[in-house]
Write a structure and sequence with these properties.
2 domains; 5-stranded mixed sheet; alpha+beta; 68% helix; 284 residues; Alpha-Beta Plaits; 10% strand
Length: 284
């Protein structure tokens, strides 16, 4: 509802600004004898509106007060000294200049509100999203939910559960040598290797995209996880000698940490990840 109101105000302000421009241009062109004078006042109105856009409505109102005071002095001078009559010309710019300022302020205020709401929506979407858009893998939020279920199943049915955490060795150095586009391709390719190296009842997650870290939940014991580790490393070694050598110009090497679920040691998904990450230190 709030977003709808901001959008309505923005559209209304833009329409008002468009109408004000149209009316001012028609009025300026209507009397050739006052063309230069009207052009000057039109430019002043635009200038105050632009300043209001980049500052705030208070500044715009102060400038409008100064304009009214200056224009009133100018009109008084024309009436007393030059003997001119007070007509439509004298009232038009006293009305239109504040209209420009108010329309610009409303448009600016509504646009900024829409930008804030858009950022809030992005943050909410990011916090609720359970899948990484570039790799189509489940993310850390999904891992929290799935790991809780898998851990409960492991305890209830006495099924061994092992978590593998994978990262790329020397990633910071690689980032300096490879373009961002190639880095994202590398993350995608390594994700595909991980996806094809596990069984259908196991799960793969992208826990960290910036410093690529994957998590694998395997229904097997620690010894059985070694087969998956060997399979992963052999496939990456094979690709390093063929595709990766030409594609990325650097060697991509996986670091893998593994820990078997123990209700006492890793009672929560966060503790489960923390224990697995500790094992990465031993994979040198």
């Amino acid at each position: 509802m709030r977003r709808f109101q901001s959008s309505t105000v923005s559209d209304g302000a833009f329409l008002l600004l468009f109408i004000a421009c149209f009316v001012s241009i028609v009025f300026t062109a209507a009397d050739p004898n006052l063309y230069v004078q009207n052009i000057i006042f039109l430019n002043l109105a635009f200038l105050i509106a632009v300043i209001t856009y980049f500052t705030n409505v208070t500044t715009g109102l102060i400038l409008n007060i100064l304009f009214v005071f200056g224009y009133g002095t100018f009109t008084l001078y024309q009436t007393v000294v030059a003997g001119s009559l007070v007509g439509t010309q004298n009232y038009f710019w006293l009305i239109m200049t504040p209209v420009f300022t108010i329309a610009t302020w409303l448009f600016t205020m509504a646009s900024k509100q829409l930008q804030i709401e858009n950022e809030d929506l992005k943050k909410i979407n990011s916090s609720l999203a359970t899948m990484d858009e570039s790799t189509s893998l489940k993310n850390s939020l999904s891992f929290q939910s799935d790991a809780t279920v898998f851990m409960a199943l492991s305890v209830r049915y006495n099924i061994p559960l092992t978590l593998l955490v994978l990262s790329v060795k020397y990633w910071d150095e690689i980032r300096r040598m490879v373009s961002e586009e190639k880095l994202m391709e590398a993350v995608h390719d390594l994700s595909q290797i991980g996806q094809t190296s596990i069984r259908t009842n196991d799960s793969l997650y992208l826990l960290n995209r910036d410093n690529p870290t994957w998590g694998m939940l395997l229904f097997t014991d620690r010894e059985g996880a070694n087969f998956v580790i060997d399979r992963l490393k052999s496939r990456v070694d094979l690709l390093n000698s063929t595709e990766y050598a030409q594609k990325y110009k650097v060697e991509l090497v996986l670091k893998i940490g593994a820990v078997e679920y123990n209700k006492e040691i890793t009672p929560t998904p966060v503790a489960f990840i923390a224990q697995a990450k500790k094992q990465l230190e031993f994979d040198v």
